[in-house]
Amino acid sequence: MDKPDSYHRHEALHMSAFLAECVESQIVDNLFIQSDQACLELATQANQILAELYQLIGKTELNV
After folding, report:
1. For 24-61, what is each residue's pLDDT tens digit?
2. How far is the C-alpha of 29 from the C-alpha of 33, rounded, in Å?
3. pTM for this predicted structure
4. How far is the C-alpha of 7 from the C-alpha of 24, rounded, in Å?
């Protein structure tokens, strides 16, 4: 396996932000999801986890 570099970090940062935005706009904001409390809680949790991942990646230093 290759060692991670700044490209890999940038790509992970970008994709975690992109996916969090997609989950929010396409799943959390969906009318069916909004109408079902259990689905809404889980979808919101998925969105929050992706946002937390984005923050963690942003703070993580590369050790290469």
Report:
1. 999 999 999 999 999 999 999 999 999 999 999 999 87
2. 7
3. 0.86
4. 26
Report the distance separating Cα 51 and Cα 53, nearest Å: 5
51: which 2 tokens? 């946002």
Token pair in block for residue 15? 């994709």
Tokens encoding 46: 């998925």
* Distances, alpha carbon 4 to alpha carbons 7, 11, 16, 30, 61, in Å: 8, 11, 16, 36, 11
Indicate the length of the chain as a whole number. 64
CA dihedral 54→7→3→1, nearest 10 degrees, is 90
For residue 25, the one-letter residue type is S
